Amino acid sequence: MERTGTLDWNTFIPVWSRIVRRIVLGDSARNNHELTDLLARLRGRANWSLLHPTRRDLREEFLQRLRVQLHRAEPGSLAEANAKTPKNPETHPEEQVPQWLFAFDPAGMATFRALALLASHPTELAAVAAELRGRDLVTPQDLPGLRAAVLESVRLWPTTPAILRETTTTTELGGRTLQAKTLVVVLAPFFHRDDERLPYADHFTPGIWQDGTAQASGSLVPFSAGPAICAGQNLVLFLASTLLASLLERHDIRLTSEPPLYPGRRLPGTLSPFGLRFSFSPHP
Question: Please, what are the domains in the chain?
Answer without folding.
Answer: 5-84+94-282 (1.10.630.10)
